[in-house]
Design goal:
Layout: E1 2-6, H1 17-25, E2 30-34, H2 45-57, E3 61-65, H3 91-105, E4 113-118, H4 129-146, E5 152-156, H5 165-174, E6 181-185, H6 197-204, E7 208-213, H7 233-241, E8 248-251, H8 261-276
Parallel strand pairs: 1-2, 1-8, 2-3, 3-4, 4-5, 5-6, 6-7, 7-8
Length: 277
């Protein structure tokens, strides 16, 4: 798998070339751009142009994480819950979420983006015929928009009932989405009510195009560095060994205000050594 790091680790900061340099210094062969306007403003042409120039000048790929925050919320904080939901029961809110994801995808006109990771549903969304239908509709719209831009669509396993490995497979089969892949979030599989990690790898075998790698202590979605929680990294290594070589292993780490940029590079290199041991 390709080593990758998400800019999520710098989420409170405005993204710039120096931060991308730090991720490459940590071993990143690909960078996941976390689409949040206060961080990576996908509506700012000058900012996109600057980042596009960086990617053209560096031997590094790019992927995109869909926006999960509505614009205009005021000051962002780490306690801000996701407010964009592509399968929200309210049609107006679904349209708002869809429009925001499309705005972020337009950056692929300048930055060569390989894939976009989608969230289907919030924490309390349940699996039923309605959520299945709304998921299929959302994927069809995003895929139709992303495909001409050369961007592959991926679905993430979240800590909810809609995106368990089995339910994601049902969505993909029902929608006949043969070219849509899965982003298996390792940390989410370590939370209450989720299937075991080895089971998730088994169910999704052949569909995993990306992994989100982070740790926790089994109760909250903490996004710790690998090794700082209770995730079984031996199981992760086995899953990586059976994955496609072009798949991406993305460190998706929560930010720490006091953490130096240099320390992020060092921690990332250490995490990759742990994962690949």
């Amino acid at each position: 798998m390709l080593r990758a790091i998400s800019t999520h680790v710098f989420l409170p900061q405005r993204l710039h070339a120096g931060l991308l340099d730090a991720l490459v210094a940590g071993g990143a062969q690909s960078i996941e751009l976390f689409a949040a306007r206060h961080h990576f403003d996908y509506t700012d042409r000058a900012e996109i142009k600057e980042l596009a120039s960086w990617f053209r000048s560096n031997d590094c790929r790019a992927t995109l994480h869909q926006p999960i925050f509505e614009p205009g919320l005021g000051q962002w904080s780490r306690h801000q819950p996701a407010t964009l939901n592509l399968i929200d029961p309210d049609k107006g809110r679904r349209i708002t979420a869809m429009d925001e994801v499309k705005r972020a995808l337009e950056t692929a006109e300048q930055i060569d983006i390989d894939s976009v990771v989608l969230h289907l549903g919030g924490r309390d969304d349940k699996w039923n015929e309605r959520s299945l239908d709304l998921s299929i509709t959302a994927i069809e719209h995003i895929k139709a928009f992303a495909h001409p831009l050369g961007v592959k669509t991926l679905l993430e396993t979240l800590h909810n009932d809609v995106t368990t490995p089995e339910h994601l497979l049902e969505i993909l089969r029902s929608g006949h989405f043969d070219t849509v892949g899965v982003c298996l979030d390792v940390g989410h599989m370590n939370l209450p009510g989720m299937p075991r990690l080895d089971e998730a790898f088994g169910v999704l075998a052949g569909r995993i195009a990306e992994l989100h790698l982070h740790d926790n202590r089994g109760q909250r979605d903490e996004h710790c560095w690998p090794g700082d929680g209770t995730v079984d990294w031996g199981v992760v290594r086995e899953g990586i060994a059976g994955a496609r070589p072009e798949a991406k292993a993305v460190l998706e780490i929560g930010y720490e205000p006091e953490l130096l940029v240099k320390t992020v590079s060092e921690n990332a290199a250490k995490a990759f050594r742990l994962i690949e041991a």
